[in-house]
Amino acid sequence: MPVYNEAATLAEVVHRVLTLDIGVDIDLIAVDDGSTDDSVAILHAIPDPRLRIAIHAENRGKGAAIRTGLNAAAGEIVVIQDADLEYDPSQWETLIQPILSRDADVVYGSRFMGRPVGMRWQNRAANVALTALTRVLFRARITDMETCYKLIRLDVLDDVRLEASRFDVEPEITARLLRRGVQIHELPIDYVARSHEDGKKIGWRDGVAAVRTLIKWRIRPSA
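Now predict its structure.
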């Protein structure tokens, strides 16, 4: 769980994750990425041994936080969960089933197969365009490349050393999985978007970076 200035929602998201009953043990790794609000104090105040905390002294970006979390992960399945309330952890139960039943190694929660609420048309258009580019470059059937909800068997990522430090981690993960011939199974999810005024951090420059990342991992000799 990457965390950057999410004091308003952090405790609730952590509570929702740690109280899930989905038939598997949950180990939550929260990576505070240089927050300047009370996020670190909130994490340290949660008395649950299943919560592990890593701290970046300064903000390095979502991709850097995910890399730190993956390096510390020791289970069989990794789930990326944002620290806001755009994505409700209660949906893990459905998303994880194809992996537990060995029908999939990777599951994405697709906002566009589900019910996205409050997404600005500019954000929707950017997401649709980036996903369309992904389909063209990698001949993939996918509806939501940028979704946060990526559930992946950890052994699929054994020799993948992610390079992205910011939001370009989303296209990097997807591109490298597709380059390796990994099938991405999608299921619909509910999604409630927040505004930049509410703390949303992704912007148009991240869209440009996503395009560059997709093209790079399409033409790079190895993934």
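Helices lie at 10-18, 39-44, 62-72, 92-100, 121-138, 169-179, 204-219.
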